[in-house]
Amino acid sequence: QVQLVESGGGLVQAGDSLRLSCTAPPRTVMWYTMGWFRQAPGKEREFVAAISRSGPTSYNEDSVKGRFAISRDNAKNTVYLQMNSLKPEDTAVYFCTAAQPGAPSRVDGSYDNWGRGTQVTVSA
After folding, report:
1. How many whole angstroms from its chain centre is CA 90?
2. What is the Cα–Cα distance from 111 to 116, expressed in whole angstroms?
3. Which residue(s) pair with 58 in the sheet?
């Protein structure tokens, strides 16, 4: 089991930016496919973005494309989710996740390691 720790969430206003961080054990970020999901109250968990170890990324085009960017720093064992132009509908708990090497999957069942999440609240 890989321990993932998210940070960077908070309360912001619509239009603001936030950068979430996910810290992982050494060599996890450079080896695994890393992803971000989110879950709003009363809703199912939703794919946000993912990045494979070789670099390709995938995004939920319907909700975050063009506003969010996923990246990683292998030296710091950290994955980031830069969130710009935040909207109230982005309010959710954001989870970092890791999967065995492969294409950046949008399916949460592909990921077998999850952090506890960090709350992001966007006020109108």
Report:
1. 12
2. 14
3. 50
Three-class DSSP labels, the chain:
CCCCEEECCEEEECCCCEEEEEECCCCHHHHCEEEEEEECCCCCCEEEEEECCCCCEEECCCCCCCCEEEEEEHHHCEEEEEECCCCHHHCEEEEEEEECCCCCCCCHHHCCEECCCEEEEEEC
Contact (CB, 8 A) for 96 and 34: yes
Query: Which residue in 80, 96, 97, 90 sits closest to 120, CA to CA?
Result: 90
Walk along the chain (124 residues) in steps of 10 and give the mean pLDDT of each run: 95 98 92 96 96 92 93 95 97 96 88 96 97
- Is beta strand 46-51 parallel, antiparallel or unpaired with respect to 57-59? antiparallel
Q: Looking at the DSSP assignment, which residues form a beta bridge with residue 29?
A: none
Give the pLDDT confidence score for residue 5 in this predicted structure: 97
